[in-house]
Design goal:
Layout lengths: L1 H33 L2 H21 L6 E7 L11 E4 L6 H4 L7 E5 L9 H7 L3 E2 L5 H13 L3 E4 L17 H8 L4 E7 L15 E7 L5 H4 L4 H20 L3
Parallel strand pairs: 1-7, 2-5, 2-6, 3-4, 3-5
Antiparallel strand pairs: 6-7
Helix pairs in contact: 1-2
Length: 247
């Protein structure tokens, strides 16, 4: 039964992706003719979020229940801000569709190589932290922030093999500190086998995406870049341990 559900899911996703690509293309061409590149990118980012939400809340429901949980205790952040998430699965990028507002994902190099999705990511202005020097990356982020666009990234850089997160890279935290922005930690739970690493097989179950309290500039301004990223990592790890019973 799991195999059949997986087969149905991937047939639906592939068909929908192809149809959505042509639909998005027609809309963007029309907008680009009559408006600016900025408007076209904003619309494309919105469409990508809609695409992700249809995948996780629609087609994926035959296998997985996805729930977005506000665990921020009233400590919110308005755009722009820097979202940082733990990284357990190839599906993590899709799960970012639960977030509000306009944002750009910070990704590795390989997502740009994906057919259709990679092209959409490029056109939407998604950034690869590994494809440019930090100064250039920082300038691109500053442009986004000036337009009230947040960034979303996975500071581990690669998927962790257990609930214990890997060490954080410092790039996202340096950018946040340079621009005195709030950091919003996100903790994804239950997605380590959706799909299984090295496989396309999705194990039925539930996934929770928790938004933790936003951390303002005053809270971290006196920390070194290293202590800053460790400070955020510790908060996220404590939350994950408490939710998974590992504490």
């Amino acid at each position: 039964m799991i195999f059949i559900k997986n087969l149905i899911f991937f047939i639906l996703v592939i068909t929908f992706t192809i149809d959505a690509f042509f639909f998005f293309g027609i809309i963007l061409i029309f907008i680009r003719i009559f408006s600016s590149q900025r408007v076209a990118q904003k619309v494309l980012r919105f469409l990508i979020v809609c695409y992700g939400r249809i995948i996780i809340y629609g087609f994926a429901r035959i296998l997985v229940k996805v729930e977005f949980i506000d665990s921020s205790q009233g400590r919110h952040a308005h755009d722009p801000c820097v979202y940082v998430s733990n990284h357990r699965s190839a599906s993590d990028a899709f799960l970012m569709g639960v977030l509000p507002g306009e944002f750009v994902q910070i990704v590795n190099l390989w997502p740009f190589k994906l057919p259709i999705l990679g092209l959409c990511a490029r056109l939407a202005g998604y950034l690869s932290v590994r494809s440019m020097p930090f100064d250039d990356f920082s300038k691109e982020c500053k442009k986004l922030f000036s337009n009230n666009i947040s960034i979303v990234g996975f500071p581990e850089g690669t998927r962790s093999s257990s609930s214990q997160m890997g060490q954080f890279h410092g790039t996202l935290f340096r950018v946040a500190k340079e621009n005195q922005l709030k950091i919003v930690p996100l903790c994804i739970l239950g997605n380590e086998d959706k799909p299984l690493r090295g496989s396309l097989k999705i194990i039925p179950g539930s996934v929770e995406v928790h938004k933790l309290p936003a951390i303002g500039y005053k809270e971290y301004k006196d920390l070194s870049n290293f202590k800053f990223k460790q400070y955020i990592r510790k908060k996220m790890q404590i939350f994950i341990d408490q939710r998974t019973g590992a504490a």
